[in-house]
Write a structure and sequence with these properties.
Chain lengths: 158, 503
């Protein structure tokens, strides 16, 4: 847990600094001097500064060997197991790849290409290997959604 | 009196009641489907009502509005996917309770609380519409800023196990909300030259991705590893489901009465102020209930009181939104705006004179609203076993279909694949946040409250010409500032263990 908090704290602090010193100056113009009210960049700066400060505190806390307790002072064991292990990262990679492929198919071929693929891919990820249930669900689920959204309600689908 | 009785009598004809029922059913369907919502349903149905009498038309549309408001809680409870944004707080306890094999109980509590909150605000509307509207009108930018500042302190109630990680999530959630054109000068902020980001990050893409699809991913992963879902499978039609898992007992409901009344008051007050929205009401009702509870640690784990708090508050905005709409012609939210246009289409001009000019139709509308609540209760009660049947289907069929539903839901409102791409990205972010114990809920709430707060603050600064002393002349704002100070003090007191007692 300590290592995860250390990495998360470091990444978020770096992200916050990047937003504060690179993204906001380039992508948020202010307004002319003399106007009343807050400048457009004011709120993004306040929130980014707050986020960076909290993330730096998180980093500092993990560097000092302390981990977070809850509001009642419970929990926070420094030697607790890592919240994300290699299997989680592998799953994230596989699911992310599946979703990216689904997105590409929706973009290239529309609903009738992307939708069956999405359903079939996630059934495979969940361990289903029997072709009949996969094909049946990959056809039935998009068909049901198409009937409700397009035929009944007249909404466009991706 | 004759006018009132004539209006009520007209509302209670068989034809009108049938149209109200049809409206409620349509609304529930729209509300329950992620991506669709009440205003959308009302807008689609409006042209169908041109041939109706004004009362029948408005009663039908009000039925849709009420049905949609309740419908949002169905998918929130059963699938952790809030059908509408205002049902977000309902997921906090509704979904965990359904996961424990008690989907019927969770649905019943959300139904009863929703009808309670809705009826409460309808009665307030009927009794005090005009004077309440005058008070609501006194809420200018300064008062709304102070109120939202107070609301922001309630994020502490949902930060999860670590205050610091919750605050990180909330700050970055608020930062994300600043993306897009700023509302004052239309200055593009962090849009990176993308036209799609000029309207900001789509709320629905964020809610569906970070809250719903991330949870589905965790369920998919659990199933892939263990061959079974974390979600308890229960057949709602089975006769052997223990009674305590199926029903909300009288003792349970009356035990929540203080929470229900508190939430209904919060929802009514927020609904009567134009622009604040029922999402804020649901969240505030939940946070206040958690803060007032003797067992706050049970909130978020499937506590029926959490469902009651969120649902009563967000539903209480439905009637209250019509207070400024009818008496002052200022629509309280999007649904009220669409309803107002329906009133105008049917020859009823909202405003202070509506009670004089269209008293019969107006009191008929009030009666129709109460009838719609009773019908929501009936339709909900009859249909909830069917709704609960959804979760009893095997996870290997449901979860892939849910992923597809999330994609379609994200696409519907924006009609853009860009929103779908964002939603998928937020799903991965939500997954990592959940695993690393960063509160997704705090992230989302900050995202929702952030723009409201910024707009109100910027208006206040302009109003006071950058001089905060102007605030001292606003007693209502000062009350909320004092409440904020008290809340922060309490927060600091409770957070002290994290800072001082860590080893």
């Amino acid at each position: 847990m300590k290592r995860a908090e250390l990495v998360a704290g470091a990444l978020l602090t770096a992200f916050g600094l990047l937003v504060l010193f690179v993204v906001i100056p380039v992508w948020v113009p202010g307004h002319a001097e003399g106007d009343y009210g807050l400048e457009a960049e004011h709120f993004p700066v306040i929130t980014a500064a707050a986020g960076t400060a909290f993330a730096a505190l998180l980093l500092l806390r993990s560097l000092l060997g302390r981990t977070g307790n809850d509001l009642n002072g419970n929990g926070g064991a420094a030697d607790a197991p890592a919240p994300m292990d290699a299997r989680n990262w592998t799953f994230l990679l596989v699911a992310g790849a599946g979703m990216a492929a689904a997105f590409a198919l929706f973009d290239l071929g529309g609903f009738w290409l992307g939708a069956p693929f999405t359903v079939a891919a996630f059934m495979l990820i969940m361990g289903e290997r029997r072709p009949l249930p996969i094909v049946a669900t990959a056809v039935a689920a998009p068909l049901a959604i198409w009937l409700v959204f397009w035929k009944m309600l007249g909404f466009t689908l991706p | 009196m004759d006018v009132i009785l004539a209006g009520i009598a007209e509302a209670l004809t068989l034809a009108n009641m049938a149209f109200i029922a049809l409206g409620v059913f349509t609304g529930i369907v729209f509300g329950a489907i992620p991506g669709l919502n009440g205003p959308m349903a009302i807008a689609i149905a409006l042209p169908l009502t041109f041939a109706f009498s004004p009362l029948t038309a408005i009663a039908f549309l009000v039925g849709i509005n009420k049905g949609a408001n309740y419908g949002g809680s169905i998918s929130a409870v059963l699938l952790n996917v809030p059908g509408t944004a205002e049902a977000m707080a309902t997921t906090f306890d509704g979904y965990p309770l359904a996961q424990q094999g008690k989907p019927l109980k969770a649905l019943k509590m959300s139904l009863y609380a929703s009808v309670f909150g809705d009826t409460f605000s309808d009665l307030i509307l009927i009794l005090v519409a005009a004077p309440f509207a005058v008070i609501a009108l006194k809420m200018g930018p300064a008062e709304i800023t102070a109120l939202l500042l107070f609301a922001l302190t309630f994020i502490a109630a949902v930060v999860g196990r670590s205050m610091l990680r919750g605050l990180v999530a909330a700050a970055f959630g608020m930062l994300l909300a600043t993306v897009g054109l700023d509302t004052e000068a239309s200055t593009p902020r962090m849009t990176f030259g993308l036209n799609e980001l000029e309207d900001g990050i789509p709320l629905l893409a964020l809610v569906i991705g970070a809250l719903a699809l991330s949870e589905v991913l965790i369920q998919v992963e659990t199933y892939a590893r263990t061959g079974r879902s974390e979600a308890a499978s229960v057949n709602p039609f089975a006769r052997d489901v223990p009674r305590e898992n199926r029903v909300v007992t009288r003792a349970e409901f009356t035990g929540c009465m203080r929470t229900l009344v508190r939430s209904a008051l919060i929802g009514t007050a927020i609904g009567a102020i134009p622009g604040l929205g029922s999402t804020l009401a649901g969240f505030l009702g939940y946070a206040m209930a958690k803060r007032a509870s003797k067992n706050p640690e049970t909130f978020g784990t499937g506590n029926p009181e959490g469902i009651a708090a969120a649902e009563a508050a967000n539903s209480a905005t439905v009637g209250a939104n019509l207070i400024p709409t009818l008496s002052l012609a200022i629509p309280g939210n999007l649904s009220a705006a669409v309803l107002m246009s329906a009133l105008i289409v049917h020859g009823l001009t909202p405003g202070p004179l509506i009670f004089e000019q269209h008293g019969k139709v107006l009191y008929g509308l009030f009666a129709a609203m109460l009838v719609a609540n009773a019908i929501t209760l009936a339709v909900g009660a009859v249909g909830l076993r069917f709704f609960a049947f959804v979760v009893s289907l095997p996870a290997r069929y449901i979860h892939p279909a849910l992923v597809l539903l999330c994609i379609c839901g994200a696409f519907l409102l924006e009609q853009s694949l860009f929103a779908v791409g964002l939603m998928l990205g937020f799903a991965l972010l939500g997954y990592v946040m959940r695993k690393l114990d960063f509160s997704v809920v705090a992230f989302l709430i900050a995202f929702i409250l952030g723009p409201l707060f910024e707009d109100a603050l910027r208006q206040t600064m302009v109003l006071f010409r950058d001089n905060p002393q102007g605030l001292l002349q606003r007693p209502i704002a000062m009350v909320f500032v004092a409440l904020t100070a008290w809340s922060v003090w309490r927060l600091g007191f409770r957070a002290r263990p994290e800072i001082l007692r860590e080893k």
